[in-house]
Design brief:
The protein is an alpha/beta fold. The chain is built from twelve helices and 25 strands. 27% of the residues lie in helices and 26% in strands. The radius of gyration is 22 Å and the shape is globular.
Length: 448
């Protein structure tokens, strides 16, 4: 039996599966996937299909149908502009593209091998990397979730705010839901107040999201969520202030999980408090180590489908480039930032994450990204209009050595994010997003 069919066949026909615009049972899901597979007669085993459908039931039906047909699926965000899509296709050519307009044949593709899922790294720090995962690898991660204490179980409902095409949303939410019998509730719209109303209506036991989701949720007003027992944050580091605000609002702490697109989930702590920067203990069937302050992960093979990831995988170990340390118990891991966040300016070392932490401590700052341009340290800050660059300069001078103080502050209502919601950390991409040419030519009144 095909691996996805084994998941689809679990559960009784009447078991709830998904709530979006309407509700689907397991029987509805199985019929929809079968019909979608029949509608794709041109897809043969080994086809490489770029899937570009808006998030929702139709996209999931198509994904499962393509896997049933033994195709390799390349997940592509529908929010990406055409030039960026073309760039991704240049990195990993598909044979077909499936959109709302239908199925298009694009020509010869890459060698699919045994890879069944292709994802692209966020590209928040530069060019995306092409990451491939086998059916066996996906199944192993589903099993890691299955034995993880505290994960939603059969009969519970989960509000899934994560992107359906990224690791936590797809595997921790969708595939775990298929395997475990949880019911998924998808958000309607982008209003956090609407998410809370939806969670209350469907009596959700868990909310899965990224730090931005929990920040927005913490600002909402009732209704309360008496059935909520779990909130899980993935994707990027959870600011302590967000954790505290969410717990104060809902009475439930935000439980961090940590993983990468290359590996899936690696650490978690869902049954007891694990305040930032802690991200829990390694989950089942994973092997990690901390060497010279960096986290490495044991893998059987390189997850990269191009040579641009070769410097990250050596002798069975994947270098995550995340700075980490072990807790006093020798098992709990804390993530302290990126190893490549330590830069040298005029012979002096500066930890960009330290500067970010100082900026985020400002009472008016909602988010901050600090980058090194090659010649100077620059800060991109999200704050209301009354917060000026001069305010932030004074704040930093009072709390940082002079050589660590950013030479430029770009202050706006929000820091640019990529389509997946991650903060952009590439100096070039930040300037491109702001429409700047010469990075020091913009003389707006909120910049120094």
């Amino acid at each position: 039996m095909n691996w996805i069919d084994e998941l689809l066949d679990r559960g009784a026909d009447t078991d709830p599966w998904l709530v979006a615009d309407g509700a689907e049972t397991r029987s509805d899901l199985r019929r929809a996937v079968a019909a979608r597979a029949e509608s794709l007669p041109d897809i043969a085993p080994g086809s490489i299909v770029a899937l570009r459908l808006p998030p929702g039931p139709a996209a999931l039906h198509a994904l499962f149908a393509l896997w049933r047909l033994d195709a390799q699926v390349v997940l592509v965000d529908t929010r990406l502009p055409a030039p960026e899509v073309e760039r991704l296709y240049g990195l990993h050519p598909p044979t077909h593209e499936l959109t709302e307009a239908g199925l298009d044949h694009l020509g010869a593709g890459a060698d699919p091998g045994d890879i069944r899922l292709v994802q692209f790294s966020s590209g928040s720090t530069g060019l995306p990397k092409v990451i491939g995962r086998t059916a066996a690898d996906l199944h192993a991660e589903i099993e890691r979730y299955a034995v993880l204490d505290g994960m939603p179980r059969r009969g519970e409902r989960v509000l899934l705010l994560n992107s359906l095409i990224h690791t936590m949303g797809l595997i921790g939410g969708v595939l775990h839901g298929l395997a475990s019998g949880t019911g998924l509730v998808l958000p309607l719209g982008t209003r956090a107040a609407g998410w809370v109303e939806r969670a209350a209506e469907h009596r959700v036991a868990a909310i899965l999201g990224v730090p931005l989701h929990f920040e927005l949720l913490s600002r909402t007003t009732p209704p309360p969520l008496p059935d909520l027992r779990l909130a899980v944050s993935a994707g990027e580091m959870l600011p302590p202030a967000v954790n505290s605000a969410f717990e104060a609002r809902f009475g439930v702490p935000v439980s961090p999980v940590y993983g990468t697109t290359e590996t899936g989930i690696l650490t978690a702590e869902l049954t007891k408090p694990c305040p930032p920067p802690g991200v829990g203990r390694p989950v089942a069937n994973t092997t990690v180590r901390v060497t010279n302050g960096e986290l490495y992960v044991r893998l059987d093979r390189s997850p990269y489908l191009r040579a641009d990831g070769v410097d990250r995988f050596d002798d069975g170990w994947l270098r995550t480039f995340d700075r980490a340390e072990l807790g006093e118990d020798g098992a709990t891991i804390s993530i302290l930032g990126r190893a490549d966040s330590v830069v040298t300016v005029a012979g002096l070392k500066i930890d960009l994450m330290e500067v970010e932490a100082v900026l985020r401590a400002h009472p008016g700052v909602t988010e901050a990204v600090v980058v090194h341009s090659g010649a100077a340290v620059e800060a991109y800050v999200g704050a209301p209009e009354e917060v000026t660059a001069a305010d932030l300069l004074r704040w930093c001078r009072e709390r940082l050595s002079d050589f660590k103080v950013p030479k430029r502050f770009a202050v706006d209502r929000a820091v640019p994010r990529n389509p997946t919601g991650k903060l952009i950390r590439s100096h070039e991409l930040l300037h491109a997003h702001r429409g700047e040419g010469d990075p020091h030519a913009n003389a707006a009144d909120r910049q120094l």
